[in-house]
Write the structure tokens for this entry.
Amino acid sequence: MAQLGLHTFAAAPRWDQAEMRALLDKFQQHKIRVLEIPLLNPAEIDVAETRAFCEETGIAPVCSLGLPPEIDVIADPDSGLAFLEPAFQVASGVGAFALAGVTYGTIGKISGAPRSTEEFDGTARFIELAARAARSHGLKLGLEPCNRYETHIMNTGADGRAFCEAVGADNVFIHIDTYHMNIEEVSYAQGFRDCGPFLGYVHLSESNRGAPGAGTIDWEQVYGALVEVGFDGITTLESMNYVHPAIASALAIWHPVAANPDDVVDVGLPFLHEVAAASGFLYT
Ligand code: FUD
């Protein structure tokens, strides 16, 4: 059965255990089984404390990031691997099954031209190296296709599949996000289908990155499509209520995304449960 997760940007721009502890009753009430911890600066995380928090609460962690703009994974893959290494250490240290997000590049970095063959091949080579490093930490590596304003390297489920097939590593999966799909895909169903066997993790993100239900995403279609492809993994609500300063500008978050930030948890989570249940998408 699928699990519902929450990206911690819903409550704080950085992983903050006190903030999370204050929300524990709500997590229980809304059946939050997974928390996504941003690792934009892996050194910010206290690994032992975070692992203890997850073990005590039974909430599983998953980690995500985007690479900093100064890193060019094609010209200098070693710099990318050097950045990922501490992130892998933190992710495995806290007990995450994966490091996901834009692990293959920088959010907000676009060349101004379509992706070239060299860029595809160079990125695939980097992903192969990153997947090997992830495996040495017992981790999977997620690749998040993002919309055209955030990257020109990987925009759709089909792009994600092309990279997964080129890389051919069994610990690489596609991390797809409804916000980006809303911009790039023909339909949610087609986008999920295009991921094929590589669909591994889903971000449930509203069209304005605020509270699900207060935007234009067609959630019935999203859940109907997840049922159709038989997805039963983790789906995580991602809202940009409080964004880490390292990526706020790249995400173009200039004003509050929800009328009231508490709506993301208090209104968005019950809304998702309601639509999921009506669609026959079952959460544990
Ligand atoms: C980026 C995005 C996020 C990001 C993650 C980092 O547009 O959608 O998923 O990769 O928030 O923690």
About this structure: The first strand starts at residue 3 and ends at 7. The beta strands are 3-7, 32-38, 60-66, 98-102, 140-143, 172-177, 199-204, 234-237. The chain has one domain: 3-279.
